[in-house]
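Q: Convert this sequence to structure tokens.
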Amino acid sequence: MNNDNLKNLRGGGIPSKRKIVFGLFSTLVISLCAVLFGTHFLFKKPVNAQALLLPTETIDEIWNDGAFNKENLEKLIQTTAGTDKNYLEDIASLKTKLANPIASSQFAKQDVAVTFGGLNWMPTYLSLDNSGNPILTLWLTDSAQLSGKTYASGKTFDANGTATWNAGSNALDSPSSNYPDNMYGTSYIRSVVLNNGGSYKANYATDAVTPYTQYDGSVFSKFTMASKGLTQYLVQPKNVSWQQNQSAISQLHTSYNQPNDALNISTGFESGYDYTRKPGYTAWGEDYLWLPSLTETGDSDIYIVLGIW
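A:
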């Protein structure tokens, strides 16, 4: 089987079926500068750290009653950047160290999770945002922890924490549509399930989208709604260079780039699968919580292909 059979976790190359079900291994990014000065934060793991192994250790909650627990946060940074400095007190040194990003395979300590906002996450990538600030990407450790939790009015996750990609769409791909069924920016899972709001493709026949307003009672509302006070510490994909320019051709050695991977790449796609000029394609660039791409996670199902993390 060649590399072109790799499937993008955000939907590129995935046949758009009526009820495609996905495990919600969603991601966030924390701005470490913001924690220090009380203003900003972000979250997403690698193929060796990406064999979906459960953590052997979990750092206690880092967010308590509207403030960060500095002791637990320091433990988190030590598992990634190391213990040679107190990096929360010396952000300048951390910025220098991150001239070359640190993937999870290079972390000082691996297979460590952290509780954040009541959910468990794995640190996956330590890098800089577009303004040169240190950011840490976190990836949800497992979707089963979402079992029974509410994501929209009257809707809860099943026992496995899975959810539909797009509701009520056609069984076939529709790349010629204004809103292809497998385009992440206008998907049900992005707008409704992850509580990012916006619009999603609800009916294949009309080639239109349905607006959705964020739900205050969602398990993800604290990560996606400004009124909850946490989004000021999170970084959006539009402010992260490797969210803008990641390439499956370069990273995974595929023949084509994958739709939904990058915000600003418009070349290297299979004929008909360049979605970058379609309305709503870049909507996820404004999100605080999103699904990772295969280019980020890598693949180890058939053979090991290293992703960015």
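Confidence is low (pLDDT under 50) at residues 1-9, 11-24, 34-52.
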